[in-house]
Amino acid sequence: MALVLRNLFQSELLSIRHGVARPAPEDTKELECETADLILLPIAGVLAKHDGPKQHVIANANHAIFLGVGQPYRITFPGDIGDEALVLDFSKEALMQILSEVAGVEQLYVPALRPHCLLPPASVLNRELLWRHLQAPVVDKLAVQEISVSMLMASVQAACVDNRLQERVRQKLTQARRRQQVESVKELLSLYPHQEWALDELARHVHTTPFHLSRVFREEVGLPVHRYLIRTRLAQALRAMQVACTDLTQIAHASGFANHSHFTSSFRSVFGMTPTQSRQRSSML
User: Which listed site, 49, 50, 159, 178, has its alpha carbon 20 to 30 Å from 193?
Assistant: First the structure.
């Protein structure tokens, strides 16, 4: 097998690699073992993961595959097509926290979880969104972390043998605590919108896990954390734009946007017009 791995993202919470595998005539189909629990998200092609004699699963771009630490497996490629995939490697501490909250387990490879799953349609779209973020000229760390946590959550939920596990774990946290954590994060983002936040950093501030914060923030606010931060930055930028002589690039940087292009695309996606068009509209009033 010819395998090309490329590092796309690295943070304290997780690292992400892009792998392209192509079958080769000299393939020996030897067993492999991972040194960490990994989540494999195929984005093209097809693969077969073999866990033992006559035990294999087929995965394409609709699936997630779990690779357990120390668990032997081998990969083959039906039709000799090969595959392309994202490999998500969460820190051991973060993975244990997320798995505990989602399913009450501490490892990916346990009887309570299937070693693979069919992703919900929304998660397939999220994986493509993650890929686009990773290919952007300036990578939005918070967005990549939040979408990755969401992908892990959806994969684990879909792989749960007994979905009642999730409900029992979820009931441990009270509504009041959820709201307090969310409001504390909103306060941080409102006070320091220009800062380059990371999901795990925000979670530490409110004494919770990245997964829990990502989930309850979306449920309570109606937006993911990174979209709320963009809205907060845009509100600050709108105020600054009232001073007609202030350069838009200067406003973009002061509001926390990486560059003018990022500012313009974010502004258009929320308000349906560019910053320049907004200024022209205001000048006519």
Answer: 178
The CATH number of domain 228-283 is 1.10.10.60? yes
232 or 174, which is more confident:
232
Task: Measure the CA–CA gap between 32 and 56, rounded to whole angstroms.
Answer: 14
Domain boundaries, the chain: 2-164, 228-283
Q: How many CB atoms lie within 10 A of CB 50?
A: 16
Domain 2-164, second-level architecture: Sandwich (2.60)
pLDDT for residue 51 is more than 90: no
Question: Which of these ranges, 17-31, 144-158, 167-181, has the smallest mean pLDDT?
Answer: 167-181
β-strand 74-76 against 38-45: which pairing, if any?
A: unpaired
Q: Give the pLDDT mean for 87-115.
A: 88
pLDDT in tens, 39-49: 999 999 998 89
- Which run of H or of E encompasses 22? strand 14-22
User: What is the C-alpha end-to-end distance of the chain, expressed in Å?
Assistant: 65
